[in-house]
Design brief:
The complex is a heterotrimer of chains A (178), B (354) and C (248). Chain A is an alpha/beta fold. Helices cover 38% and strands 25% of the residues of chain A. Chain A has one domain (2-176): Pyruvate-ferredoxin Oxidoreductase, domain 3. Chain A has six helices and six strands. In chain A, strands 2-3-1-4-5-6 form a six-stranded mixed beta sheet, with helices on both faces. In chain A, helix 1 (15-28) crosses helix 5 (144-155) and helix 4 (127-139) packs across helix 6 (163-176). The longest helix of chain A has 14 residues, at 15-28. Chain A is globular and about 40 Å long. Chain B is built from eleven helices and 15 strands. In chain B, strand 14, helix 10 and strand 15 (326-330) form a beta-alpha-beta unit. A seven-stranded mixed beta sheet of chain B has the order 3-2-4-5-7-6-13, sandwiched between helices. Chain B has two domains: 4-236, Thiamin diphosphate (ThDP)-binding fold, Pyr/PP domains (Rossmann fold), CATH 3.40.50; 241-350, Rossmann fold, CATH 3.40.50. Chain B is 38% helix and 19% strand. With 248 residues, chain C is α/β, with parallel strands linked by helices. In chain C, strand 5 (170-177), helix 8 and strand 6 (204-210) form a beta-alpha-beta unit. The longest helix of chain C has 19 residues, at 181-199. The radius of gyration of chain C is 17 Å and the shape is globular. The chains are: A alpha/beta (178), B alpha/beta (354), C alpha/beta (248). Chain B binds chain C through residues 23, 25, 49, 51, 53-55, 57-59, 61-71, 73, 87-88, 91, 95, 196-202, 205-211, and chain C through 12, 41-45, 47, 54-55, 57-58, 60-68, 71, 74-83, 86-87, 103-104, 106-107, 110-111.
């Protein structure tokens, strides 16, 4: 098993932390993991992306050239990464902010209105968790419980009160692609 | 100990502190900033000292002072900043002081770019500063290996009284992987009886110095002290990974993150029935020359892959000594080699097209 | 018979390599005597520069570290941060400190490094053979200013003490001279004060010492002392620019 996922959006959408969370969860489940961010000026307000690999075998290159999945949070990310997905891979599109359909016909495309779902839950910031929930439902790369366990560690006691909201977001995301 | 998920630059800092490094002198430059930032946060907690110098030149000279004073000390930078440090590195090598220097390489020349590159190979292995000197250069490919080698680097520096360099790139610095801080195999380290911490009236003064105005004295210093230990290091400290070298149609040579991309390419070639080997130098100096002797007549050619226009290839050519043709594939300026392009190159060599 | 004078324990028995009439020898002795009198030779670490005093490590009878050109304050910073209880000093000339090492000296002062800098200003590069320094006076000839220093072409001589006295971390800044016996005594007092300030942990201290270079000035030793008095003193006024009391 090797899952190679590109996560992309604009700065502030929580793309990097979504990637780190999946990486962390993979590590907890004793899988091989790597997280590689884009860095530099493009990080200052532009598009941000990260490459996450979760694998049962040791990981070669941490750079993803042939993604098994892509989670795109905005339009420039869809334009940039749609072609990088392997045939029969998964493409999860944030339909709240992306006004076009996917062009690829050989990949599995899922439209998730992540921002609307997040707003319904009371906090637009958990749109990333909605997207991650959808992706996990599709791929089962790690268990949702492990993501929650990772979240607990990342949040610590100071932010523990945010846990239920994030759990709900993961669940709603999963529901959206079920 | 349990695994921790860490960013490369921070993992380097954590490993250094675990190895007893209590002093860090640095200067900001992308893409290594998380390392000095980490040290500025963590060193005060262990009663250590982080100081942001006024320049890379000052930073390496603070390292020179601290190393002479007997401390385990580190500095880091990225390519243009590392160019500035070369003066100090030459002095430190000449005065035979231990320290660890980290270069998170970015594209060049000049201000270049900020994306990953391996275009400082010459600078690292040929001595970027003046004079007849060498220093150990480690080029880890994973964060676990990075952590292990950073810790080892402090021991090696102390054992041989010389600077040790860790060469990473923007990718190693920025990426996250699980790391585990393991206990090192203990080395017999000499007592530091040469340091400048004051005579306390109990011994003759110690002098830290790289100046030998008499040519014969300087030649003796270079030959009897420096060269002599370089020969020992070439004998004892070479590190490399080899894979299928004796039974390969094509042997690839790559280090650092590039070697990981090459491994992907090799896996693809193997799936198609090709036999491809890999030599991954872990020490760039001393270079693993001897493993090249294992390459048999069966091998059609060597392929060196680098994120540069071809620098390590010189060492590969020296090592294979004309026995086999050596080909090159590289990207530079912050561009990263694509596994498919490497596969194509391997196929061309295996199929006799090259 | 009573001993009325003895060689300071602060110097080794190595014979100085300095030219006849050069005042480095006097200044070395003053620094060494101060270290001995303050009883800190055992915890002193000196940093030697590049320049005529490059071999200072052979003369001072304490731990010494030879630095790259201009970098002595950075090297001293490294030593002092590792051993805060040691007494660390740099000994630098005007090419070393006022030209190639300006960044290092300014920032050592700026950080308030608890070190002492002995700055020997003889208005010329001595070791390399009499080239123009930032401190060379207007009209003064040097091998790279054969027609005399011209302000239009290369600026006015740099006044290091005045410049450093604008920096908060520089707690003690004084300019002295060694052109006659009474000034040599004042120089020793200033050096002692600067070390005492380091011992109290108050901050950075520098003593700028006007000095002669008869060889490269093309004069006899006596002419050199006279030239210093008549030409350097008017442009580089002696006096204290900062003391801790004034700073606080």
């Amino acid at each position: 098993m090797q899952e190679r996922v590109i996560m992309a959006g604009f700065g502030g959408q929580g793309v990097m932390s979504m990637g780190q969370l999946l990486t962390y969860a993979g590590m907890i489940e004793d899988k091989n993991v790597s997280w590689l961010p884009s860095y530099g000026p493009e990080m200052r307000g532009g598009t941000a992306n990260c490459n996450v690999i979760v694998s049962s075998d040791p990981i070669g290159s941490p750079i993803i050239t042939e993604a098994t999945a892509a989670i795109v949070m905005n339009r420039p990310s869809l334009d940039k990464f749609e072609d990088d997905i392997v045939a029969n891979g998964n493409l999860v599109i944030n339909s709240s902010l992306i006004n076009r359909k996917a062009e690829r016909e050989d990949v599995n495309v899922y439209y998730v209105p992540a921002n609307e779902i997040a707003v319904e839950l009371g906090n637009s910031k958990v749109a990333n968790m909605v997207m991650l929930g959808a992706y996990l439902e599709l791929t089962k790369v790690v268990k949702t419980e492990t993501i929650v366990e990772a979240l607990k560690k990342v949040f610590g006691e100071r932010k523990a009160h945010l846990l239920p909201l994030n759990e709900k977001a993961l669940a709603k995301g999963a529901e959206a692609v079920r | 100990m349990a695994k921790i998920l860490m960013k490369g630059n921070e993992a380097i800092g954590a490993a250094a502190i675990k190895a007893g490094c209590n002093y860090f002198f640095g200067y900001p430059i992308t893409p290594q900033n998380e390392l000095p930032e980490y040290m500025s946060r963590e060193l005060p907690k262990v009663n250590g000292c982080f100081l942001q110098a006024e320049s890379e030149v000052a930073a390496i000279n603070m390292v020179y002072g601290a190393a002479g004073a007997g401390a385990r000390v580190m500095t880091s930078s990225s390519s243009p900043g590392m160019a500035l440090k070369q003066e100090g590195i030459s002095y430190i090598a000449g005065a035979e002081l231990p320290c660890v220097i980290v270069n998170i390489v970015r594209g060049g020349p000049g201000l270049g770019g900020i994306q990953p590159a391996q275009s400082d190979y010459y600078q690292a292995t040929r001595g970027g500063g003046n004079g007849d000197y060498r220093h150990v250069v480690y080029a880890p490919s994973t964060l676990q290996e990075t952590v292990d080698l950073v810790m080892e680097a402090f021991d090696v520096a102390d054992q041989y009284r010389m600077p040790v360099m860790i060469v990473g790139d923007g990718m190693t610095g920025q990426m996250m992987e699980p790391v585990e801080f393991k206990e090192l195999k203990k080395r017999e380290l000499p007592v530091k009886d040469w340091i400048t911490d004051g005579t306390k009236g109990e011994r003759e003064p110690n002098i830290i110095n790289s100046l030998f105005i008499d040519p014969q004295e300087l030649e003796d210093h270079v030959n009897d002290r420096l060269e002599a230990k370089y020969r020992i290091i070439e004998e004892k400290e070479v590190l490399y990974e080899e894979y299928n070298v004796e039974d390969a149609d094509v042997v690839c040579i790559a280090y650092g993150t590039t070697s990981r991309i090459v491994k992907n390419a090799i896996a693809e070639c193997e799936a198609e029935g090709l036999k491809v080997g890999l030599i991954r130098p872990i020490t760039l100096w001393p270079f693993p020359h001897k493993v090249f002797d294992k390459i048999t007549d069966k091998t059609k050619g060597l392929l060196t892959v680098e994120m540069s226009t071809g620098q390590m290839i010189d060492d590969v050519k020296i090592a294979i000594a004309g026995r086999k043709p050596v080909y090159f594939h590289g990207r530079t300026g912050g561009m990263i080699p694509n596994p498919n392009d490497i596969v194509n190159e391997i196929k061309k060599i295996a199929g006799g097209e090259k | 018979m009573a001993v009325v004078f003895d060689r300071t324990k602060g110097l080794t028995s190595k014979i100085f390599h300095y030219c006849p009439g050069c005042t480095h020898g006097v200044i070395h002795r003053l620094v060494a005597e101060v270290l001995e009198e303050l009883d800190v030779l055992g915890k002193a670490v000196g940093v030697a520069p590049v320049g005529c005093s490059v071999f200072a490590y052979d003369y001072f009878n304490c731990d010494m570290h030879e630095a790259a050109h201009g970098r002595a304050p950075a090297v001293a910073t490294g030593i002092k941060r590792v051993h805060p209880d040691s007494v660390v000093f740099t000994y630098q000339g005007d090419g070393d400190l006022a030209s190639i090492g300006t960044a290092e000296i300014i920032h050592a002062a700026h950080r308030g490094e608890k070190i002492t800098t002995i700055f020997v200003n003889n208005a010329i590069y001595g070791m390399t053979g009499g080239q123009m320094a930032p401190t060379t006076l207007i009209g003064q000839k040097a091998t790279t200013a054969p027609y005399g220093r011209d302000a239009e072409h290369c600026g006015m001589p740099l006044k290091v003490s005045e410049m450093l006295s604008t920096i908060d971390g520089a707690k003690f800044v004084e300019r002295v001279s060694v052109h006659n016996a009474s000034n040599i005594r004042k120089t020793k007092k200033a050096i002692k004060k600067a070390f005492e300030i380091q011992l109290k942990g108050e901050g950075f201290g520098i003593v700028e010492i006007l000095s002669t270079c008869p060889t490269n000035w093309g004069m006899t030793p006596l002419e050199g002392l006279k030239w210093l008095e008549e030409n350097m003193l008017p442009y580089y006024p002696l006096g204290n620019f900062r003391t801790p009391g004034e700073v606080e």
